[in-house]
Design goal:
About 65% of the residues lie in helices and about 15% in strands. It is α+β, with helices and mostly antiparallel strands and about 425 residues long. It folds into three domains: about 160 residues, no CATH class; about 140 residues, Methane Monooxygenase Hydroxylase, Chain G, domain 1 (Up-down Bundle), CATH 1.20.58; about 60 residues. Strands 2-3-4-1-5-8-7-6-9 form a nine-stranded mixed sheet, sandwiched between helices. Helix 5 packs parallel to helix 7, helix 6 runs antiparallel to helix 7 and helix 7 runs antiparallel to helix 8. It is rod-shaped, with a radius of gyration of 46 Å. The chain starts with a helix and ends with a helix. It holds the Pfam family DUF3422.
Length: about 425
């Protein structure tokens, strides 16, 4: 029974995972409205706020509008707020809010889709604004190209505009890439016969391009900070390497090792602190390049293309990020090689010191051996002296007992023999100790 319950639980878990993975294919539904329409797109960096908190905030807004909120663990949700279609989407490090309203303002861009939100929600979004885009989708199939371009320049408020045709001339995308007074970028999409589905896809691609190119540009700020920090660390490393090369002028290798260790720590900190940002910039840049390719924009008259401007401006920023990341890695490798060189030099010095100590110990042992040999010589004479003295007492006792002996003569005769016996005994003991 327990095994059956365990199998049922595991099966339910697997089904839940499969459902979640299957839903990922539908995780980014398109917002669709027939043209003409106006769109406002806002991206807010999440910072210290979690995705769950942002989801709860949007759920509270939906509840206040008597609408259903996002499901648990959902990363997107669309809701109808009056005449406005609002979509919230949670990205990795930001949240986007897209608003669509049928019809154009009079004149276009005079009133954005944001005006259809209540004041509190609009104030919160504008207060957290990181990226803002206003899009006007206008219908124009009959006007001449010159008058259409003149109108687009007037709508965008600039004589220098960038754009071209999409969907084989059935649509046009234009922008000046300049922010208006509220900090929003203006984009004009001209519908010359686009279907509603194709228009929705083009609008989605434009919004994603504007979102991810600005998120990718965050890497440029990090790259500039890294370049400044590396500009301070590289001369410090060069100074240490110069002192290593002229070691006779500065033999304190331990101090140099401490300095290069601090440099290595700073380099590793820089690399770790900005690794995510550079990786994210690469990922965002990849998305932008794919979306620009999907637009398949064609040249429109003599005006520079929308995609050309984006590629021309985004590519140098990404090259700067790559250069900063590569420069960091190269400096880390240089520091590693310098550290290994210093370690080798310190190890060599330690070996020389150990060799000097061993030579000193060997010399001391040699002196001790010589002293020991001298002491052994003195000890032989001392033992002989005491042994001859004992024999002298023995001879004197014999004379006292009436023996006809001369103690002094016998003592003198036996002294060499005692010396030889003692010397042989000591030598025998030393030989036994050696073996």
């Amino acid at each position: 029974m327990e095994e059956l319950e365990s199998d049922i639980s595991a099966g339910a878990s697997n089904i839940s995972e499969r459902v979640a993975l299957s839903n990922e294919w539908h995780a980014r539904p398109l917002l669709a409205l027939p043209s003409p329409l106006r769109c406002s797109h806002i991206v807010c960096l999440r910072g210290d706020v979690s995705l769950e908190e942002r989801r709860e905030q949007f759920a509270a807004f939906c509840q206040a509008q008597d609408q259903s909120g996002p499901c648990k663990n959902s990363r997107h949700h669309s809701v109808q707020v009056g005449n406005c279609l609002l979509k919230w989407e949670g990205h990795t490090e930001a949240d986007s809010y897209t608003l669509l309203v049928a019809g154009n303002a009079e004149p276009p861009f005079a009133a954005s889709a944001l005006t259809f939100l209540d004041a509190s929600m609009r104030s919160r979004l504008l207060g957290e604004l990181f990226i803002g885009v206003h899009v006007e989708v206008i219908c124009d199939t009959d006007s001449p190209e010159d008058s259409r371009l003149k109108r687009i320049r007037a709508l965008l408020g600039s004589s220098e505009v960038y754009g071209g045709t999409v969907s084989r001339g059935k649509g046009e995308i234009w922008s000046s890439f300049r922010l208006d007074a509220e900090g929003f970028l203006r984009v004009v999409i001209v519908d010359c016969g686009l279907s509603e589905a194709r228009l929705s896809r083009h609008l989605q691609r434009v919004l994603e391009v504007e979102t991810y190119r600005m998120l990718a540009m965050l890497g440029l700020q990090a790259a500039r900070e890294v370049m400044g920090t590396l500009g301070e660390l590289e001369p410090a490393l060069d100074e240490v390497m110069e002192q290593i090369a002229h070691r006779d002028a500065d033999p304190a290798l331990e101090r140099l090792l401490q300095r290069i260790t601090r440099i290595a720590a700073k380099v590793e900190h820089v690399a770790a602190a900005h690794a995510y940002r550079f990786a994210a910039a690469r990922a965002y840049n990849g998305i932008v390049e794919r979306r620009l390719a999907e637009l398949s924009e064609a040249q429109k008259g003599s005006a520079p293309r929308y995609t050309t401007f984006l590629q021309k401006t985004l590519m140098p920023a990404m090259r700067t990020c790559e250069a900063a990341e590569r420069r960091t890695q190269e400096l880390a490798q240089r520091v590693t090689r310098a550290t290994q060189l210093l370690d080798s030099m310190v190890d060599m010095d330690q070996k020389k010191q150990n060799q000097a100590i061993l030579e000193s110990l060997a010399e001391r042992a040699n002196l001790q051996l010589r002293l020991q040999q001298s002491v052994e010589g003195f000890s032989i004479f001392a033992i002989t002296y005491y042994a001859v003295g004992l024999l002298g007492y023995l001879f004197k006792s014999g004379k006292t007992l009436g023996l006809a002996v001369d103690p002094d003569l016998l003592t003198g005769i036996t002294a060499p023999a005692v010396l030889v016996v003692v010397w042989l005994s000591v030598r025998s003991i030393k030989n036994r100790l050696k073996h």
